[in-house]
Amino acid sequence: MEYTPEPAIEKEIGQIIQALEWEHLDPNRIRVVSSRGSRSRRILARCHALPKALQTGLAIPAHYVIELVSENYDCLPEIEKTKTLIHELLHIPMTFGGGFRNHDYVRAPRVNKLYEKYLKAMAPPVPAFPENQKTPEAYHLTFQIEPKTISNFPTA
Fold this sequence. Notes:
Helix content: 25-40%
Radius of gyration: 25 Å
Strand content: 5-15%
Strand order of the largest sheet: 1-2-4-3
Order of helices and strands: EHEEHEHHH
Number of helices: 5
């Protein structure tokens, strides 16, 4: 296996954390690497934690590494890539202590709901119309069409 740091995706992780207001996650202690050489066909990414014994022995706080399996992750559409990152971040518990949340908590409906929240948070603000200008609704025209009976058709 070959691993490559992914600082651009670490930046995206920071944006996701900020947009979803996940204050329990420290983006400075979450790293992202891509891996090459996996034979897995289904695994898109993995979340790794620094075990408590190593934290204690090395006298450093918990850190997490999100591994993106290049053979499977790179070909995904951007939407699925972002959902994958959200999925992996959901594995990190509120305590940020080196443990994991399992797949009973990290489920597709939760990921999809959080993805929608992320999109709303990242959407540019809609500009306000000055009071002296008409809003787009003011330009909307409605037509009322009166029903007509067509009398020149033969009846059976």
